Amino acid sequence: MRAAIYNGPHSITVGERPDPVIDAPTDAIVRVVLSCVCGSDLWYYRGESPHDLGPIGHEFIGVVEEVGREVRGIATGDFVIAPFIYCDGTCANCRAGVTSQCINGGGFGNHGIDGGQGEAVRVPLAGSSLVPVPGSGYSEGTMRSLLALSDVMCTGHHAAVSAGVTEGGVVAVVGDGAVGLCGVIAAQRFGASRIIALSRNPSRQKLAAAFGATDIVAERGDAAIEAVRELTNGVGVDAALECVGTGQSVATALAITRPGSMVGIVGVPHGVDASIADTIVFRNVGLRGGVAPARAYIPELLRDVLEGRINPGRVFDFETDLDHVAEGYAAMDERRAIKALIRIGTKETSR
What's the rounded Cα separation, in Å, for the pair 341 and 316? Predict the structure, then answer.
């Protein structure tokens, strides 16, 4: 099969890989229909995070082509969403709802596991990981939103859950990438009365407003902190969603959150000052978040997508095919695109 290959920093090519086969009785083989490039993939692309040479990509939707003899709840021909972390659904962490920390789980596209940016994927623990999508005849817009549920919408949702967003609250979203924009959707979904989006990019500002942002702050650093405080009468926000992971973004999120409230942090940390104890202890600002338990969140978000209440697929503003996957990486790296969709197959099923 053909798949995107990570050859080192700034080198993504398309090459041949062995066709995936059932290795364990709990495996399934999924033919990929749509995939995409994640913001976290850019850390590998830029050489700022380690990644094995070989397959890459962890977000995909597709059609089940084969299942192992012990797979339950998934059948050949099912159209499925793959959460970016597979899980057994039964370990202590899974039972607590933290499927992203499954004791027996793992991620796609690294450490010997097939990547989602390819024609097919062997999915371990398929019965407890893959989420079947009911119905058929989905629109193009719905297909894009289903793909967003594999990671980015769940991650934005996790930021809102971790920050404790509540109905009527005032929320700030730090970061205008796909995760931040999905964080705006999540905050609006939870009923926030005011959503302050921190963004300097006009097209992203426009999309944030379409998703429910009531205020836009274009400043950064100390100027952004001052602007948010001014918007909140010097108090700060009830919840902040940190969706970038840089030292400046984390510092901003902590500084604009009022005492007694929480920052939901989901950005992959790079250059973050670990000495934030003073803020947490002396300003009574909490910090919570981490890797989103996508498998736990997908069912409720899937209902909202299928019923038209949310449309996170709008974050895909660049489209390419597998042959030109490197162009998707370049577009995102150069901030010419929010999120690049990779069209790989078609959604015919055998059922």
Answer: 6
Of 238, 282, 284, 300, nearest to 264 by C-alpha is: 238
Buried b vs exposed e over 296-325: b needs ≥16 C-beta within 10 Å?
A: bbbeebbebbeeeebbbbbbbbbebebeeb
CA–CA gap between residue 126 and residue 93 (Å, rounded):
18
CA pair distance 109, 235, nearest whole angstrom:
43
Token output for 87: 């899980």
Residues 6+ apart with CB under 8 A from 190: 160, 165, 166, 167, 169
How far CA 239 is from CA of 235, 265, 281, 284, in Å, comes to: 12, 11, 17, 13
* Token digits of residue 39: 């913001």
Give dist(CA 263, CA 242) in Å, integer: 7
* Nearest-angstrom CA–CA distance, 77 and 145: 20
Domain ranges of the chain: 2-151+293-343, 153-289
Thinking of the domain 2-151+293-343, which architecture would CATH place it in? Alpha-Beta Complex (3.90)
Token pair 């364990």 is found at: 24
Report the alpha-carbon angle 304-294-99, nearest 5.
Answer: 135
Q: For tokens 């596991």, name the residue.
A: 113
Paired tokens of 71: 């797979």
**What does the alpha-carbon distance between residue 189 and residue 332 come to, in Å, rounded to a whole number?**
27
pLDDT in tens, 262-311: 999 998 877 777 656 667 766 788 889 999 999 999 999 999 999 999 99
Question: If you compute the radius of gyration of the chain from its CA atoms, what whole number of angstroms results?
Answer: 20
The counts of H helices and E strands in the chain are 12, 18
Top-level CATH class of 153-289?
Answer: alpha beta
Report residue 333: phi and psi, to 5°: -60, -35
pLDDT tens digit sequence for 223-240: 999 999 999 999 999 999
User: What is the pTM assigned to this prediction?
Assistant: 0.95
Token pair recorded at residue 300: 């409720």
Cα–Cα distance measured from residue 236 to residue 257, given in angstroms and rounded to the nearest whole number:
5
Cα distances from 139 to residues 67, 146, 213, 331, 347, in angstroms, run 27, 10, 26, 25, 12
